[in-house]
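pasting for ref
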Amino acid sequence: MYTTRPPSLRREIVLWYSAVLLAALIVFAAIAYVILRESLERAEGESLHQTAAAAEQLLLPAWMPRSEVGELRMTLPGTRIETLRRRLRLATGEEVEIFVAGSGGIGRAALRNFLLISLLLIPLTATAAALGGRTIADRLLRPLERLVRATREIGIGRLSQRVEEPDRPAELRELARDFNSMLARLDSAVGALRRFTADASHELRTPLTVIRGTAQVALARPRTAEELRDTLEEVAEETERMLHLVEGLLTLARGEQAGPEAVRERVELLPLLEDACEMGQALAAGKPLAVQLVASATVAVRGSPTALRQAFLNLVSNAVKFTDQGNVTIVVRDEPDCVEVQVADTGRGIKPDELSHVFERFYRGDASRSSNGGFGLGLAIARLIVEQHGGTIDVQSEPGRGSTFRVRLPRAAA
């Protein structure tokens, strides 16, 4: 179906600019014409009056007493001749009438010339303005056209490309900067999605490969009931690992979709931290490891108790996992501007070059840390939850001496 192409911005700018200028010129010419006509009529009347006064001086001596009876100005019927009749009364009682006339040709010629000049200059000026407006519009829109062409060339595989930021006009420069900023965010998001997909695929491939290999081996020859039981236990173990991974991925996906606006409820932190401490003690069973909670006051924040509980459980279980002996201590501090929770351990610590990556999804560091069976999602989930609650999370660590994870959350209003 044929569709009418909408007018271009360049055409609209030129048309509106020309139309406004043409209207302004017409209004100006009309006002000037009226003022000029009134001025010429007033000048013509004054000219007739001065001519009548001069005729009076010529006809009557200056010493002769007289008085003015009146003046009458009129146009002769059927003509454009203006006349002025002045009546004078002498001391002797006689009356004298002085007639003067003017054709007004000079004024009419001036008005005709003004109209002619206006009729010539207004279209010429409007045309020149349209051409000048088009030139200016071309100059102003050229950077926009380059921006449009550049955006058409950018696809999902070229998000690292950036558009040119023109020096002028300032509005287009701001538009280009904002567009480049959006491209940078998209590039980062798409890169993270690709890494996330690749890592998830890799993590899922391992247990699936184990399950398939185990099933193929079991089917290769007849098995005893005990052998089949061992095979099923191994499959169940790998299935549990996959469920753990999928639950972590779903948690991240739900958390990203929920956003900070879902956080509303007032939450007392101590019960949540007590649960995390008890879970840590259960995980540390069989290790020479003490898990304890140190809290000096009751503190509260606003948020989701379920999500916050999961964040602290992830931090405590991570500390217990990488601490063979010593202590895992949960410390609560009521700071002037926030609530601070520290989870400190005396475990293996984290290398300096790995500190900036520990909150990334699927990151598990060196072999000593990646051999603990996790997927590297716990700390990523903890950071997501904390940030959605308007807080921050960071880590300080020294290899061989342990790590301290610090969570800072806004305090709930009383």
